[in-house]
Prior knowledge:
22 strands; binds ligand TNX; 8-stranded parallel sheet; 556 residues; alpha/beta
Amino acid sequence: xxxxxxxxxxxxxxxxxxxxxxxxxxxxxxxxxxxxxxxxxxxxxxxxxxxxxxxxxxxxxxxxxxxxxxxxxxxxxxxxxxxxxxxxxxxxxxxxxxxxxxxxxxxxxxxxxxxxxxxxxxxxxxxxxxxxxxxxxxxxxxxxxxxxxxxxxxxxxxxxxxxxxxxxxxxxxxxxxxxxxxxxxxxxxxxxxxxxxxxxxxxxxxxxxxxxxxxxxxxxxxxxxxxxxxxxxxxxxxxxxxxxxxxxxxxxxxxxxxxxxxxxxxxxxxxxxxxxxxxxxxxxxxxxxxxxxxxxxxxxxxxxxxxxxxxxxxxxxxxxxxxxxxxxxxxxxxxxxxxxxxxxxxxxxxxxxxxxxxxxxxxxxxxxxxxxxxxxxxxxxxxxxxxxxxxxxxxxxxxxxxxxxxxxxxxxxxxxxxxxxxxxxxxxxxxxxxxxxxxxxxxxxxxxxxxxxxxxxxxxxxxxxxxxxxxxxxxxxxxxxxxxxxxxxxxxxxxxxxxxxxxxxxxxxxxxxxxxxxxxxxxxxxxxxxxxxxxxxxxxxxxxxxxxxxxxxxxx
Length: 556
Ligand code: TNX
C-alpha cells in the first residue's frame, strides 16, 4: 500500500513540476496511474495519449439521445473544462464519429446508465445507453484527468492517457439522505452536496424536509408551516439526555430556523436533474410532526399549542388520525409537493410514531372502531393507505421507513429498511420493493472513529469506511427476492451536524465506499478500493472538500 501511495504522490509531483517549468498556456500531462471510484466493470490503460484542447469539438453522433438530457452532458463537460480553457466546447451534430473530437454516441444495446469510454490517439469516444450513461462517462473523465490540472486556470491542452473502460451500475437506486430539519442547509450547500453525489455516480437525493425540530418547505396553502413551524426558540447543547430533561439540560437560547421557498425547491430539483439525480422529498407522517402541529394546533389530538421541538429524540405528539381535517391538510400538502417534485416516489416518513396520544383521543378511538380494528397501530396503516391512494391518483408511488410494515402494508408501497435489513428482507419476501439503508452500515451520523474524544459529537455508533464497504444489501435474500431490492442509501441525520463543512466530513470518504456498494456490488474488493483511494483523496483536496482522514493513516 505504502509503495502505491508513494508512486502516486511521485506522479503528482512530476505533473506539478512540469507545469512549474513551462508556465501557463501549457499542456497538462496525463497521470500514469489513473483510477476510478466506483470501480468500473473493466478498465485497461495504454501507452498513448490524446490531448483535449479548447478547440476540440464535442460531436453528438446520430440522434439516439433525448435532446433535453444530452444538453446536461455537454454542460457537465463545460463545467469541467471551461474553468481551465476559458471557453465552452463547440458542440456539433453529425452522423458519424469525427477524429480528434469527443464523440458521444448512443448505443441502445447498453442500459440507460451504462457507458463505454475509449481514449485513443485519435480522440475520445463515449458510447452510452442513455444520456445518464454519457453523464457518468463524463464523471469518470473528471476523475481520470491529470490531478495537476485542478491547480491551473489557463491551459492550452490536457493530456489523457489511452484507455478503454466498460461500465454499468449493479443497483438502480443509489441514494443519500440529508436531514435539513434538525439543522438547516442552504440551497448553495445542498447544490454542493449534489455535486459530490454526482462525482460518486449516486442518482438519488432523499431530502428530509420536515420533522419535530422544523418544517422547511414552503406550502402556499399553509403559510404558517414555514412562518412559524420553521423556527425553534433555542437548541439543546450537547448529547440528548434521552427524555430526561431537567434543570441540568442546557440550551443555547438562540432562535434557529430556515426554510426553502417553492422557487428554491424547483431550482434544486432542476440542478439535480442536470446531474441525473432524482430528488425524493420526505414529508413525515404521522410521527415526527411537531413542526406541523406547532403551526396548526388542530392537527394534533388535543389542539394544544406546542413549541417547535428544541431537543432531539422521539416525540409523543403526532398527527391525529381521527379527524378528517388532518387528511385534508396532508393531502393539500402532498398536492403541492407532487407539483414540485417529479420523482416516481414520494417519501411519507412513517418512522418512530408513538401511539400514546391516539390511545387517549376520542376521535382516534372512534376511527379505530370505524375501521373495525382494536390495535392502535392499525391507525398508522389506515393513514398510510389513504396517503398512498392520494399519491397513486397523482401518478406517484409511496415509500416509507420500515415501520410502515408493522400495521400491515399495501402490496404497492416501497419500504426503506433502516432498523437493520430485516424490514427490507421482509418487504422483498412479500414482493414489495425496498431500499436498504440499515443503520449499522448506512448511518453517516455515526462516529468514524472509536476515539470519540477527538471527533465532533455524533449520534453514536461506530461506522468506519471498512464497514460501509462490507455492506451486502442482498444478504439473506434469494435470487427472486433480490429483484425487489432497488438499491442502497446513506443517511445524514443532522442532530449533531450544525454546519455544512461537517456534512462533508461525515459524508467523505464514506460515500466513496457506499458508491462501490451501489455501483460495483458484483466486483467490489476492499484491497483494490484502498489502492484507488489516495487519488480520490487528492481529488477531494483539489475540490476543497472537508473529509475525514482516518483511512489515510491506514494508507501510509
Ligand atoms: C432514527 S432513521 C431516526 C431519525 C434520527 C436517527 C438518528 C429514522 C427513520 N428515524 O429521526 O435522526 O435515528 O440516527
